[in-house]
Amino acid sequence: MTSNADAGTTGPELGDYTDKPEGPVTAAILAAGIGSFALGLLTTLAEANERIKEFLNFYDPVGPLSGKTVGAVAVWLVAWIVLHVLYRGKAVESRKELAISLVLIGLGLLGTFPIFFQAFAPPE
User: Where are the transmembrane segments (predicted)?
Assistant: First the structure.
């Protein structure tokens, strides 16, 4: 059996690697948290305000859900682009951003629970 050195080819040895900046990955994770929070916020706002609910009704058969999801995806995409430009090529300590993302995802999830967003509905 021949090794890479015997065959005349060179390649990375086990453990040899270049450390890449975590900025783009951190930007994607943080943008996911922002997008999740946007969905929860839009869901709660649509329940709390009739004008917002009507504004978010992009397609009648779907109702305001169409605007909530389109809005959340738009916020996520803009956040991802902006954060990617800001963090591109930077070494970022991603623990803080991961914690922020988890909190935002949790708040977004909370905002989509009926027991939560219905608490903001105007009294009938």
Answer: 25-45, 65-86, 98-121
91, amino acid identity = A
Interatomic CA distance for residues 31 and 80, integer angstroms: 5
- Structure tokens, 95: 């623990």
Question: What value does the CA radius of gyration of the chain take, rounded to a whole number of Å?
Answer: 22
pTM, 2 dp:
0.81
Q: What single string gives the DSSP state of each residue in 54-108?
A: HHT-SBTTTBTHHHHHHHHHHHHHHHHHHHHHHHTT----HHHHHHHHHHHHHHH
Q: For residue 105, which of 24, 18, 42, 32 has the smallest C-alpha distance?
A: 32
pLDDT digits (tens, 9 = 90+) for 42-66: 999 999 999 999 999 999 999 999 9
- 16 Ramachandran zone, left/alpha/beta (phi>0; psi -120 to 50): beta
Cβ partners under 8 Å of residue 84, min gap 6: 23, 24, 27, 28, 31
pLDDT of residue 90: 84
Q: Where are the domains of the chain?
A: 21-120
